[in-house]
Amino acid sequence: MTRLPSLFVSHGAPTFATEPGRAGPLLRDTAQSLPRPKAVLILSPHWITRDVEVSTAAAPETIHDFGGFPDELYQIQYPAPGSPEVAARAIELLQAAGFKARANPSRGLDHGAWVPVRHMYPDADVPVVQVSMPHTLDGESALAFGRALAPLADEGVLIIGSGSLTHNLYEFRGGATEAAPYAVEFVDWARKAVRGHDANALSHYLESAPHAKRAHPTPDHYLPLPFAYGAAPQGGEVKVLDGGILYGMLAMESYLFGDAQAAAA
Fold first, then answer.
1. DSSP 3-state assignment of 112?
2. Which N-terminal stretch is annotated as signal sequence (predicted)?
3. pLDDT number for residue 233
4. What ranges make up the beta strands (E) of 59-100?
5. Measuring CA to CA, which residue among 174, 164, 175 is closest to residue 244?
6. What pLDDT score does 265 carry?
7. Tell me: the pLDDT tens digits for 116-166?
8. Taking the domains of the chain in order of start, what are their residue ranges?
């Protein structure tokens, strides 16, 4: 069996579903370059719980967890199957690593999950399992969270952390054509950190990144990055998927951590 890399994706606004821009084709091409996964396991900041929950639904619903957007977004369905088997294995791994984790048999896929995965697997023919973000998660525990689930990559599961590389919606500028300098500086820092395999910088971004609090007034959309990094093989290649910066402040950059390779026997 092939060991899969892990992926951090910036899922942007819900309109990313219908406005792929630069980032959508990059995600599609990345998926096509990888072996077909047994399933996708994805962490999204739009499902935050007290302890970790893992969706065990065999047919997860498409959740339209947003308001005030064009009607066409609410008509989109992403009917990918779930994988109760992979979900059960994820719970087993998380509990073994000391996380309180339990099954949620009814949870569907929120837009942080189905929007980017829809660009990658438009036929909805790859099972998707969503895992929640525990409300106490920080940079260090996000790394540990990813490392706890890393064995799934040896079992043919593509692990994805879905967030946004910058996410200050207070500064949203719909007609902006130029990126705010602070967002550019944060993206430059993140590229350097991931390419340099600087786990300490990634997990302590508030101390090491420029404009960290401005780029992320809350940590939820950042933490999928150290999560995805933690799930990757240490020291592997990092591929930058430069999706640009939208609305002056929303970085759509994603990272592929590692190459597909033969899993250890």
1. helix
2. none
3. 85
4. none
5. 164
6. 41
7. 999 999 999 999 999 999 999 999 999 999 999 999 999 999 999 999 999
8. 2-262
Chain-wide mean pLDDT for the chain?
A: 95
How many CA atoms within 13 Å lie on the side-chain side of 85? 8
- The angle formed by the CA atoms of residues 79, 111 and 212, to the nearest 5 degrees, is 150
Question: Does the pLDDT of residue 215 top 80, yes or no?
Answer: yes
Place of tokens 């910088």: 201
CA pair distance 257, 179, nearest whole angstrom: 26
Please state, in angstroms and rounded to a whole number, the distance separating the CA atoms of residues 169 and 187. 16
- CB burial of 220-230 (b: ≥16 within 10 Å; e: otherwise) equals bbbbbbbbbbb
* Number of separate helices (H) and strands (E) present in the chain: 11, 12
pTM: 0.96
* Tokens at 170, concatenated: 């207070």
What are the φ/ψ torsions at residue 232 (nearest 5 degrees)? -90, 160
Place of tokens 């640009």: 244
The DSSP 8-state label assigned to residue 211 in this structure reads: T
**Is 50 exceeded by the pLDDT of residue 53?**
yes
Which residues partner with 173 through β-bridges?
Answer: none
Q: Is residue 263 scored above 80 in pLDDT?
A: no
Exposure of 235 by Cβ count < 10 A (0-12 exposed, 13-18 middle, 19+ buried)?
Answer: exposed
* Residue 8 DSSP SS3: strand
* Whether the predicted pLDDT of 221 surpasses 90: yes
Whole-number percent of the chain with pLDDT over 70: 97
Residue 116: Cβ-neighbour burial (10 angstroms; 0-12, 13-18, 19+):
buried
Nearest CA to 228 out of 154, 138, 159, 140 is that of: 159
- Residue 155: what pLDDT? 97
In CATH, the architecture of 2-262 is: 3-Layer(aba) Sandwich (3.40)
